[in-house]
Amino acid sequence: MPCNCCEVTDHAFSEKEARRAAQQYRRRGPSGQTRAILKAIRARALNDLSILDIGGGIGAIHHELLEDVAREAIHVDASSAYLKQAREETARRGHSDRVEFIHADFTDAAVNLPKVDIVTLDRVVCCYPDFPRLLRAAAGRSEYLLAMTYPRDTWYLRLGLRIMNLIQALRQDPFRVFVHPVQEMDRVLNEQGMRRESVTRLFVWEMALYSRVRQ
């Protein structure tokens, strides 16, 4: 993504939208594709995990996992509005001393981040034009698992996102959403030593869980 990622994301994801997302989370809990990530991670029956949540939004993944299987988390996001909501919810849950928040384009910050047990990207790959760079950086931080959600590669989603991006262009808004080829994303992660373990398909979203191949 270009170097103005944070500027673009702050424009695309407003404080009003972030507040609405936080309120919805408190009322209803995690959304469907987020629940798929949580279920896949918890199914591994692991404990005392370190998590890196890329583009973590209001922080639903680490809010949930810090309640049972995780000890600490790093939350990286290019939206200051969503980071604000994530911090507030983290404090409300008493987890402030267990989460580090970073306002940045993850690919710029990745080299300075420690390796963790699990990396998560929930609805993040679809917002990033240079997905190979993003996935290589994400895989490079994962010692064990990587879980991500992305739009299913279907005709109806390609059509819908094409229309959405046209509207964005007419508004002179640089933010775009992408349906990246699943086979290409899989290839990139395979090259980084990750192997796909499971896939969960919803109507719009697909969740893939990868594990580190041990030599």
> In DSSP terms, counting alpha (H) and pi (I) runs of 4 or more, how many helices?
9
Terminus-to-terminus distance = 32 Å
The mean pLDDT is 89
CATH architecture descriptor name: 3-Layer(aba) Sandwich
Quote the CATH topology: Rossmann fold
List unreliable stretches of 5+ residues: 1-8
What form results from the Cα inertia axes?
globular
User: What share of the residues does DSSP label as strand, in percent?
Assistant: 15-25%
- Rg from Cα: 16 Å
Specify the structural class. alpha/beta
DSSP strand count: 7
The percent range for helix content is 40-55%
- The top-level CATH class is Alpha Beta
Provide a quick synopsis of the model.
This protein has helices at 5-12, 15-28, 32-42, 60-65, 80-92, 106-109, 131-140, 155-170, 182-191; strands at 49-54, 70-77, 99-103, 116-122, 142-151, 194-201, 205-212. It has 215 residues and is of the alpha/beta class.
Protein topology:
Blueprint: H1 5-12, H2 15-28, H3 32-42, E1 49-54, H4 60-65, E2 70-77, H5 80-92, E3 99-103, H6 106-109, E4 116-122, H7 131-140, E5 142-151, H8 155-170, H9 182-191, E6 194-201, E7 205-212
Parallel strand pairs: 1-2, 1-4, 2-3, 4-5
Antiparallel strand pairs: 5-7, 6-7
Helix pairs in contact: 2-5, 7-9
